[in-house]
Specification:
globular, alpha/beta, single chain
Length: about 280
């Protein structure tokens, strides 16, 4: 799977947390409100941002398994979570954390989700929830099929946030916006380590697969709403480079579009959050 730097993940974390769909988050909280404890497996955890954005919705006692292919990101996650916590201590291979009155036991697992998915989902004890953030637009259509079937067979709920849906709006507009967006969305469908990626089709495609598999599915829009600043600059840089790599624009055209983003007042980047609950 293609990696992301800890610096990029830290830069985007405030926007990620602000963007989450409140109706979907509320549905998650209500589903687990009667539980005293919960076991969560977080796929593609990066530096642990999804845990930090989700823990407050869940019961007071939580056991998390953070899964990522990149051992450097797992190490970063441990360090960042220890610094984020009100209290933290090592407990063998796990990290015990107290935060805002909640107790979290966090373990870290290096795994390749192209081959290790079944073992991650069928761990003993079985998780009560699978979570992920900004993951499913990176995987292939075939992997989505495999994942949906595995989740159905295990009977595990899914809460996933920030799956890119292909929509962007930059203000002020630029004559190159359409070509840049087309090129970026095409680049999003290149192989990110799982085969040809679903890219912008992933958000709705995942929801449809889960519903067809018998889950009760709640979706909600979770767009980034950005103003000018470091995240908007780095995002525009990456979008321009991807569009040029896809051949939708020349490098010069990509550079001109990026240069014009110096005047960006705001940008909206579309995402979709999904909660899927097994039907009783």
């Amino acid at each position: 799977m293609s990696g992301f730097s800890a610096d990029w993940l830290a830069l985007r974390e405030p926007a990620d947390h602000a963007a989450r769909s409140l109706p979907v988050a509320t549905a998650l909280r209500e589903h687990f409100a009667s539980h005293r404890s919960i076991r969560v497996v977080d796929l593609g955890c990066g530096a642990g941002s999804n845990l930090r954005g989700t823990f407050h919705l869940l019961p007071d006692r939580q056991r998390w398994t953070l899964v990522d292919y990149d051992p450097a990101l797992l190490s970063a996650a441990r360090d960042v979570l220890a610094n984020w916590a009100d209290e933290a201590r090592d407990d063998g291979e796990s990290l015990l954390v107290r935060k805002d009155g909640k107790l979290l036991a966090i373990s870290f697992r290096q795994a390749d989700l192209t081959v290790d998915l079944d073992s991650v989902l069928t761990a003993d004890p079985t998780p009560d929830l699978v979570s992920a953030a900004a993951l499913f637009d990176l995987v292939s259509e075939g992997w989505l099929d495999t994942f949906t079937a595995a989740l159905r067979d295990a009977g595990i709920p899914l809460y996933t946030v920030l799956t890119y849906d292909g929509l962007q709006e930059w203000v002020p507009s630029h004559e190159g916006d359409a070509a840049i967006l087309s090129g970026f969305n095409a680049h999003q469908q290149t192989d990110k380590g799982f085969g040809r990626a679903a890219g912008p089709r992933a958000a709705e495609g995942l929801a449809q697969r889960l519903q067809a598999a018998g889950f009760t599915v709640t979706t909600g829009s979770s767009p980034w709403e950005l103003e000018s600043g470091a995240l908007a600059v780095e995002l525009a840089r990456g979008i321009a480079e991807a569009a040029a790599e896809a051949g939708a624009v020349t490098p010069g055209e990509a550079q001109a579009w990026f240069d014009a983003r110096d005047t960006t007042e705001r940008a909206t980047i579309g995402h979709l959050d999904v909660l899927a609950l097994p039907t009783p």
